[in-house]
Amino acid sequence: MARALQLPEGRVLRYLGLRVVQVVPTILAIVVLNFFFLRLAPGDLAEVMAGEAGSATPEYMAMLRQQFGLDEPLAIQFFKYMGQLFQLNLGYSFRNSMPVLDLILTRAPNTALLMLSSLVLAVALGILFGAISAQWRGRWPDGVLSAFSTIGFATPLFWVGLMLIVLFSVELRWLPAGGMRDLQQVHTGLAAVGDVALHMVLPVLSLAFFYIAIYTRLTRSAMLEVQELDFVRTARAKGIAPLPIAVRHVLRNALLPIVTMTGLQLGTLLSGSVVIETVFAWPGMGRLAFDAVFQRDINLLLGVLFFSSFLVIVSNLATDLVYALLDPRIDVP
Amino acid sequence: MTSPFETLALSRRTLLAGAGASLLLPAAARRAGAAPATGGTLVAVLDPEPAGLVAGLTISAPAVAVSANIFDGLVEYDEGFKLKPSLATSWETSADGTVITFRLRNDVTWHDGTPFTSADVAYSLLEVTKKVHPRGNAVFANLTAVDTPDPYTAVLRFSRPSPVVWAAFNGTETQILPKHLYEGTNPLTNPLNGKPIGTGAFVFKEWVKGERIVLERNPNYWDKGRPYLDRVVFRIIRDPASRAAALETGEAQYIPLNPVPLSDVARIKASKDLVVETRGFEGPAPMYFFDFNLRREPFGDIRVRQAFAHALNRKALAETVFYGLAKPAAGPVPSYQTQFFATDLPQYDYNIAKAEALLDAAGLKKGADGVRLRIGHIPSAYGEDYRRAGEYFKQALKRIGVEVTLRNYDLPTYIKVVFTEYDFDTHSAWYSAYPDPQIGVQRRYWSQAIKKGTPSSNASGIADPEIDAVIERIQTEGNVEKRNADIRELQRLAQVKLPSVNLLELTFYRAYSAKLSGIDLAPFGGYQSLKTVWVGA
């Protein structure tokens, strides 16, 4: 790996600068499209809130619309929004009586915690399982792990979550059924960390379940492919033991597609977290976005989309850099 | 395996208090609720998260369920819909019905320590309820002034008698807000809506969006000795199966609204550790109905509407789709509101042959494929149960040769299509009848309630001079007897003219731990303050 770090620093910086310049119009285009596409959805926040209230008078609804700025022409709304955005103000969520940025900043860490833990678990176990599968191809460990990954692939996330709750919370009473912390007692310090960790077990397992399956399959096929290559044969001919070959020669070279996948997966993990956050009452950003859709809380939704598109772009950039680190032949353009 | 509620958290103090009580009282006496235990934390569950915690401003069922703990109204109802004192100790109405005088408590302070006075009442009614409450400007339309001759007297002046206001003075509908904190601000955007200051039994502590709302006991509450609980935590859990799990594991002890899917109610009921309570919703009074769009043919023909009414088996609907948690409605007013409910209303029995004869008479003959009419139906988007009811309508109407295409939408689209565009043939939903038909029932039948873009208004488009006349009499009649006669007449006309089929009185329910005592069973109990609740042994 040390070789990869010998990339001339100036080039990396120039590359980063170039990518940032590319990112700005991309994000701008995303914001503009989001703004106009979201207005195509029928119904608005005023109607939803009046619906929640059980009834309303037309005067009340007109007042709400004026309050939310929905009575102004679309073009004006758009320019106002863009003006705010350039001051990094994501607007106000009337449905949540809170600035959008504050809402996102309180919820994003919770989702990040869930996503990253699941991702680390999924990558670690997936690579381990995949390597085992490839190493014992056609034998019983391969069979067991292939069956596991097929099930993992085919099972809906919410069902896994509910079944884990039924087993570990309702029946065995080992783990909490949902939420992020114990609400009946207030924990502090280390106890609080332990409390959150305990609440994380089931959601992280559920969310990781599907991705373990993906990484197992991916690692297995990538390793099988690399095993056939000449340099592996050479290594074997030199009399290197099977385990160092598997780890240093095969696995390292099989990691590239996994890195690509992991980078791409960050986006899909966010959508998976909507389901998991719903089932486990986890106060994260996926659920925030989901509710915003059904409440037509456009300001909030725009903010979340802006924020997540930014994250996806950053993670793509990070993926490219990791790529270059893993394989020195890949050049930073 | 441990019992589900061994995990019910009690502070050490409560455990000791509980232990003390158990030494002093025989078990039977405790179970009978002789001595409320104080202390402890109650975890309740909410869904969806409210928009704000001041239900006088952003009213929705979950907002009220939290807010009623923080704010009081002028009065409450007892189990028989009778008025009980709350912030007001007594009241009298002038002979002509245009002046109502409230005497207020003089020992009440806001949570910030400021004394509560009649100025708060005047401000709340005129500036909040009349202006920014979704129903307030309709219910209090005739309220012209509130005089405050002294800090503990509020005199409400009306331009004409308005008996309906008595159905709206309770704290779950009309809250009294602190004038000194709201005056001069825009009440809708006042930051206090997220961290409210009230006079209620519990004091707001914190609101972590998407996760929890925490309230703590108000040590200075005017209702001495109450509340019993130290803390109430409302958790937000969006998934119904997860709500059931929270209840079954004891992580939550009280779910006031839509706790579990209807299909799970039997399982929860069977558990000896859990209670399903159906009382406490007679105030909101959900009434389920099937609307015809009278703007469209062939629904202008009364025979077609009658045929539909005869083809829908309301008893089967109640028992299958709603798992018995509903009963056939005899009219638009629920039968348990005995002060208004009219007996001997015209009914439409389940009778396929009659329905087919009516359709034949209306000229809708069956085609070669057995279909005489193709229509669309939009079920309410407020829950899965109503979509399943849509499936029932489809099957039931097929039997009389009516082919139904179901159109399911998400909530905002549903509101737009049904209440703004009126783009439907038939539609089914429930509206709250509320404790007075003038608030909840007339809106389905009054021509003035055809309010484009307004949810839960007159969607069928009925505009009938006879019905309008009786509704307008109800609104202005000061004599209770005469008014009740008019309300009965409205129910008769609703059944005869049939712009919509009254299907079911829905039974809403709460679920909670069997260890809780003192659950409020008043007509708004499902939404009411938890000040009477304690955790027993």
From TrEMBL, chain A:
InterPro entries registered for this protein in UniProt: BPD_transp_1_N, MetI-like, MetI-like_sf
Chain ranges passing through the membrane: 12-37, 112-132, 144-170, 190-214, 254-280, 300-326
All copies of domain ABC transmembrane type-1, residue ranges: 108-323
Membrane topology, as annotated: Multi-pass membrane protein
Keyword flag Acetylation: no
Record localization: Cell membrane
GO BP field: transmembrane transport
Coiled coil: none
Domain of life of the source: Bacteria
Keyword tags: Cell membrane, Membrane, Transmembrane, Transmembrane helix, Transport
Any matching Pfam family: BPD_transp_1_N
A single cellular component GO annotation: plasma membrane
Location (main, coarse): membrane
UniProt cross-references to CDD domains, sorted A to Z: TM_PBP2
The keyword Membrane is assigned to this record: yes
Family, per entry: Belongs to the binding-protein-dependent transport system permease family.
Protein name from the UniProt record: ABC transporter permease
Organism: Xanthobacter dioxanivorans
TrEMBL record, chain B:
Residues annotated as domain Solute-binding protein family: 82-442
Main location, first listed in the record: periplasm
Subcellular location: Periplasm
Keywords tagged on the record: Signal, Transport
GO annotation, cellular component aspect: ATP-binding cassette (ABC) transporter complex; outer membrane-bounded periplasmic space
GO molecular function, one term: peptide transmembrane transporter activity
Record-linked Pfam families: SBP_bac_5
One GO term of the biological process aspect: peptide transport
Tree of life domain: Bacteria
Entry similarity comment: Belongs to the bacterial solute-binding protein 5 family.
Record's protein name: ABC transporter substrate-binding protein
Organism (species): Xanthobacter dioxanivorans
